[in-house]
Amino acid sequence: MKPNYLTPRLTFSLILPTVTTSPTPTNKGALCDCYIVSGPEPGYFTNHHFWDFRNIPLPNLNQPTQNQNPLSQNATLRLTQTPFITDWFPQTWAKTGTQEYLPITNAQSNVFFARNPTPQQPQNPTYLLLQATRLPTYVSTAEIELRARNIFHCSLRVRMRLMSKETVLGEATTTNARQHPQAEKDIAQDKHSTKSHRPKQYQHPADQNIVPKGACVGLFTYQSKTCESDIEILTADPPNVIHYSNQPDYDPVSDTAIPGAGSIVNLSAPWTGWVTHRLDWFPGLSR
């Protein structure tokens, strides 16, 4: 009989920093050989792995960041250039377009480490980004997949947030003053001043992280088209709405959702900020 192996995947269509974990050990000692997760049906696991992307050596990490593009090649590091490639590998598959949808292409260059744009967190200087860019004729996007193929069940945690490119860059100029209220006031004052000056720069408040519509961010375990569990975020939704589903959740014949296969939930915190997402795949149960 063929084993029902699972393949955890992380697929994103926007810039996305992540910290990925699996079940937390009940004992950090060397003799610990069993792990339990919290919840009404606590699952027991024989393996635990933690991937921490928050402090990765980057080119020029300790140099001043003023006037430096944090997404430039000399300031970032591809996932394929790090030991994480042993466990995770970026996808390169592509999908043709239709009359309604643009073609999409996954690229390894869209998965990389960059400097944390939040200076208030010096203990976490880096993060992993999975980036998508809407181009005139196609969408360049990113997906990473776990290499392990002997997973029967799992409890997955991913700490992440969705960000616009402007938020990742961490600043805006007066050329886009509407993104910062103080900028409009300064421009109005400058109209009555003859003093020569350079354009001012403004930090983006967290609540001004406006993510473009049209993308889907997904965390999922996958064995087949009829054996899959997903966490999905649609950027066209309000920033606290998230989708949980077991596949298939849609009947193409009747053009209706399959009852009980999916749920739409309101989060207590928006996905534009840091949120830890959890997916448990247990025998006969996903949650």
Can you put this structure into words, describing what you see?
The protein is mainly β and 287 residues long. Helices cover 5% and strands 35% of the residues. The protein is built from two helices and 24 strands. The protein has helices at residues 165-169, 181-190, and strands at 7-12, 18-21, 35-36, 44-45, 50-51, 77-78, 88-90, 94-95, 104-106, 111-115, 126-130, 133-134, 139-146, 154-160, 172-173, 201-202, 216-224, 227-234, 241-247, 250-251, 256-257, 262-266, 275-282, 285-286. Mean pLDDT is 77; it is low at 11-18 and 171-206. Residues 181-193 have a biased composition (Basic and acidic residues).
What are the key terms here?
mainly beta, 287 residues, 2 helices, 5% helix, ConA-like_dom_sf
Instruction: State the major sheet.
Output: 10 strands, mixed
| Gap between N and C termini | 26 Å
Fraction in helix:
under 10%
Rg computed from alpha carbons, rounded to a whole number of angstroms: 21 Å
Structural class: mainly beta
Work out the helix count: 2
Number of strands: 24
**Beta-strand fraction estimate:** 25-35%
As residue ranges, the low-confidence spans are 11-18, 171-206
Shape type = globular
